[in-house]
Amino acid sequence: MPSARAAQPASFRRDRNLLWMLFTDAELRRVIADWSIQAPLILSSFRRDYARADGDPAIGNLVKELTAHSPEFRQWWHRHEVDAPCQGVRALELDGLGKVGFEHSSLIVDEGRHLRLVVYVVQEMDPQAEAFARWVIGEVGG
After folding, report:
1. H or E segment and range at residue 52
2. How many angstroms separate the CA atoms of 102 and 94, rounded?
3. Any bridge partners for residue 109, and if so which?
4. pLDDT attached to residue 64
5. What distances in angstroms separate CA 6 from CA 1, 26, 63, 69, 105, one per listed residue?
6. Backbone phi, then psi, for 115, in 5-degree steps?
7. Going edge to edge, which strands form the sheet with 98-110?
8. At residue 2, what are phi and psi to the nearest 5 degrees?
9. Of 21, 23, 118, 123, which cross-links 73 as Cys (Cβ 3.0–4.6 Å)?
10. Residue 122 reports pLDDT greater than 80
């Protein structure tokens, strides 16, 4: 009897894939401050997962699709840089607030399916931390 994984198509959900959105979604590109610095770093972290994927067709299809759709991905993919950390600091440009700094960490949800959850927490010392807390609950326009 084939496994459930074997029965699944070798595809990925574009609307749930941060790497796909990072390189194809203009709004996300606008929101990530210093996108041209952050995107290659995120891609270099993905390379670590790609190496561990052991020929997974869904991961291969993601790379193939991104290579076809994004000139930046196509250019940066061939650099072969690998960045191990899945945590750090990243700033986002939020409507009504401007630039807000976040600490982020990537957690493995399902290693067999190469699923990660990225958690963002506003930096306590960020000058916009209190304004962000109000923004989240709808007290600040945006």
Report:
1. helix 35-52
2. 12
3. none
4. 93
5. 10, 34, 20, 27, 30
6. -100, 130
7. 87-94, 98-110, 115-122
8. -70, 150
9. 23
10. yes
Predicted TM-score of the model (pTM) = 0.75
Inter-axis angle of helices 57-69 and 35-52, nearest 10: 150
* Residues 6 or more apart in contact with residue 14 via CB below 8 angstroms: 20, 21, 24
pLDDT at 132: 93
Task: Give the SS3 label for residue 135.
Answer: helix
Torsion of CA 49, 53, 58, 64, to 10 degrees: 70
| pLDDT tens readout for residues 12-32 | 567 778 899 999 999 999 999
Q: Which two structure tokens, joined as six digits, stand for 79?
A: 């650099």
How high does pLDDT run on average in the chain? Answer: 83
Closest CA to 38 of 81, 76, 90, 98: 90
Closest CA to 66 of 87, 38, 46: 46
Query: In angstroms, rounded to a whole number, what is the distance separating the alpha carbons of residues 141 and 138?
Result: 7
